[in-house]
Design goal:
The protein is built from 2 helices and 8 strands, in the order E-H-E-E-E-E-H-E-E-E. With about 130 residues, it is α/β, with parallel strands linked by helices.
Length: about 130
């Protein structure tokens, strides 16, 4: 249903390092790399992509209150790895990895511009 999500950034180069590291953990690379934006995802798959950009209107990038991007991981170990990678790249914790109920395993963090993300997977009940 979702094709891609774009997040505003104040610093493309700094954001690129952060998202390159997370994309690598998830098995993706850059799909597009332009002067004003970078996008990560898979040309071949139907999955959603993620991009960062300096806002087109020239105003400062800002964080949407209540807005969050969820990154689909293959299993809890990959959720943990994405979370640890985000923190190692300078992201901040918004909720350590763990079971959130109903088979939903997730970890929450913010990127270098304050955008909220999570890594999650669904785990079948035992």
């Amino acid at each position: 249903m979702i094709g891609y999500v774009t997040l505003g950034t104040a610093d493309i180069e700094r954001g690129a390092i952060f998202y390159d590291a997370i994309a690598k953990v998830l098995g993706f690379g850059r799909m597009m790399d332009e002067e004003t934006f970078i996008a990560w995802g898979d040309y071949e798959g139907p999955g959603a992509g993620l991009s960062i950009t300096k806002p087109f209107d020239g105003n400062a990038a800002s964080v949407g209150n209540g807005t969050m991007v969820a990154l689909n991981a293959k299993d809890p170990a990959q959720v943990d790895q994405v979370y640890e990678t985000a923190l190692a790249q300078g992201g901040t914790c918004e909720g350590k990895p763990g079971d959130r109920g109903g088979g939903f395993y997730a970890a929450y963090f913010r990127d270098l511009d304050g955008n909220k993300l999570n890594a999650f997977c669904m785990v079948a009940p035992e």
